[in-house]
Amino acid sequence: MKTLSIRQPWASIICAGIKDVENRTWKTNYRGKLLIHSSSYKCPKGVANLLPLEMGNTLLNEDLYGNIDLNDFPSSSIIGYVDLSDCVEGEYDSIWAEKDSVKFVMKNAYMFDEPITGVKGKLNIFDYDIDENNLPPAHKAELRSPRIEGNTFVLPLSVSMFNGIQEIEGLKYFPLYETDDTIKMLCDYNKADDSNSLKNFDNIKSIRLVAKDGRELTYKFSGIEWHPEKDEKDKVISIPNLNNEEKEVWLFSVFFE
Question: What is the mean pLDDT of each successive set of 10 residues along the chain, which is 257 residues long?
Fold first, then answer.
């Protein structure tokens, strides 16, 4: 079966349905189901903070939601499969698309329940001896994301985040990093001066936390703040964005008790 070897964290976030483009310097005529192999490269710890702002914030949120685990990036393994649907040489609307690259467009992502370990990668697209019609058990990528249902703010959480919040007494909060999706959900856009402002959430009365394992808890909603992230010395953190411009890291703090 056709296989492509990719470095981490890109391999895992492709199979999780987060990254929809793989950038290459070469193109292929192949279209169809493609196994994703994670190379032997060891993903550095704190990788989200080493990426451009838009990418890093996306990964931090997806980790909080339980869609990925930033501490679990297997190497030298076949971890899932996708449909390679297209190769685009021009512009492509995705934060993962690199300029002047060939964009392999990935769709219908699946993650194997257990990776096929101990597999060496090869250059370009290569063949791995496995029956396409008899693949190991896998689950289709379904990205959980925050949403507002009536007067309730619903937040999906990783199991560890859910457990940690349970242990906090009194006022609690959940961080949502600033991305296009969180801005669209939580802010109003002013076309006149091309600015965003936090929405009015007076109608929100409760917050429901939904763990990855299905457990749920409901709390009283207390409000949302939009503010820059600071380090231990109370200095605002800045990270280069996709245009290599230094930008402050902003996040939304959702409070409840």
Answer: 97 97 96 97 92 97 96 96 96 94 97 96 95 94 95 97 94 95 93 87 96 96 96 94 95 96
Reduced DSSP (H G I as helix, E B as strand, rest coil) percent helix, strand, coil of the chain, to 5: 15, 40, 45
Whole-structure pTM value: 0.93
pLDDT for 190? 83
Strand-strand pairing, 250-256 and 216-228? antiparallel
Handedness of CA 129, 132, 137, 139 (dihedral sign): positive
Q: Give the DSSP H/E element, type plus range, for residue 198.
A: strand 195-198
Distance set, CA 192 to CA 179, 195, 196, 198 (Å): 21, 8, 11, 16
> Are 35 and 3 contacting, i.e. CB atoms less than 8 angstroms apart?
yes
- The radius of gyration of the chain's CA atoms, rounded to the nearest angstrom, is 20
- What's the DSSP call for residue 74? -
Determine contact, residues 224/252, Cβ cutoff 8 Å.
yes
